[in-house]
Amino acid sequence: MSGSMWRGDGVDLDAYLRRVGVRGDVAPDLSTLRRLHTAHVGAIAFDNLDALLGRTEVPIDLDSVQDKIVRQGRGGWCLEQVVLTAAVLDRIGFTFTAFAGRTRIRTGDKFGPALHVALLVELDGERWLHDVSFGAHGLHEPIRFAENARLDGDWSFDLVREPSGEHVLRLLRPDGPVELYGFTTDVRYPSDFELLNHFCLTHPRSPFNKRMVLQRTRPEVRHLLVGTALTELRPGEPPVVRELDETEALSAPEEVFGITLEPGDVQTLRKTLAGP
């Protein structure tokens, strides 16, 4: 394990399990994978705040990510969360690969940059899509990686394959399916994450470095904050969108998304919301 690129030997597994609220034994099996997935998305929000707080970098080495998400009680964006969960799965003994997907929700763009990263976990001759960081519209537990696979429940999803060969994860809403992202299974490595991370933090076309994007996935309700627009999603109901005033927007990270911020960070965000 000491030679694994996913750094399972460097993760504080007990601290992570406490952070997400998982109790009992864990093992490299489907039951554990489901428990970890559901617990992680309920406890840890998608959080792009570092990009708005004047940070010149968002480090994605395991030690930095653990300190931020596990010890400081923050969330993280996709790449940070994948680094953390990959180390956790590696430590437990799972076998998996990483891939990158092109986000389609809200844009419908099949050809944008592949910025979203998730994992394919191998178990008993099958593979499972394990994606804890897509946010408010994403999976609450793994879905079997197979053509026309479905995950049914209050929140339902399926996987379809397009003629191009891309797989597409879709959220199945009462008014029809919503494409979340398309991907191939080309293997990505931690060194690839560094390039994607730099794009997300610095590129003019990055969707994550200009305004707050916070997301949290819980069984009964999901929240998405983009700028000052807060969307509440409930199973089988139309989305409810509300514009927050400055006070509400500054309190939302902690009150809605469970993100712990330092007082100085809140003041910096206040200036960001006020604009130039």
Task: Provide the domain count.
Answer: 1
Write down the secondary-structure element order: HHEHHEEEEEEEEHEEEEHH
What is the number of helical segments per DSSP (H or I, 4+ residues)? 7
Strand content: 15-25%
Distance between the termini: 49 Å
Helix content: 25-40%
Radius of gyration: 18 Å
Q: What is CATH's topology name?
A: Arylamine N-acetyltransferase fold
Count of β-strands: 13
Question: What order do the helices and strands come in, and which of them pair?
Answer:
Blueprint: H1 13-20, H2 30-43, E1 46-47, H3 62-71, H4 78-92, E2 95-103, E3 116-123, E4 126-130, E5 143-144, E6 150-151, E7 156-161, E8 167-173, E9 176-183, H5 190-202, E10 213-217, E11 222-226, E12 229-233, E13 240-243, H6 246-255, H7 263-274
Antiparallel strand pairs: 1-10, 2-3, 2-9, 3-4, 4-5, 6-7, 7-8, 8-9, 10-11, 11-12, 12-13
Helix pairs in contact: 3-4
